[in-house]
Amino acid sequence: MMEHQNSETTNDMRAIAEEISEIVLELSCNVDDMTAEDIGFAIERLYESGALEVYTIPVGMKKNRPGTLLRVVCTESRKQSLVECLFRHTSTIGIRETATRRYILKRQMETLQTPYGDVRVKSVSGYGVSRQKYEYEDLARIARERGIGLSEVRRLLQEEA
Questions:
Q1: CA-based R_g, the chain, Å
Q2: What is the pLDDT of residues 73-108, one digit of tens each?
Q3: Under a CB-based contact definition with an 8 Å cutoff, are residues 95 and 29 in contact?
Q4: How far from 25 is each of 10, 12, 45, 93, CA to CA, in Å?
């Protein structure tokens, strides 16, 4: 009986852990013959094809050429379309795949009514952390409308809170 209870407790703990982590894939390729505009376009297409994250890292390539490491984070279900997208929109001739665990804070979005219009606030929590952040697009809209900087918009919203 005691072993059964320990097994249930262990399974419960795994279930909790699985709610805040997931296995994702990292697809990586190197390119040394693409312009910054071409890479930017490829990144747009990768996000449209379901990438969770896309980023670049400058790297040294063979024959002392500067190059770019392009890394795409995705779920297993989006892998095939992202592999096709990488081959279609980059000059790479090979893609590497690595499975990795990603830890995630729980996210919640709230919309605040302010004198400057609706402002979305993202709240995240987990692993002993809790924080909030105004959504960039809403801050930028207010800044453009008022002809002020983002830090000034944040100050105005804090004064309203």
A1: 22
A2: 999 999 999 999 999 999 999 999 999 999 999 999
A3: yes
A4: 26, 26, 18, 19
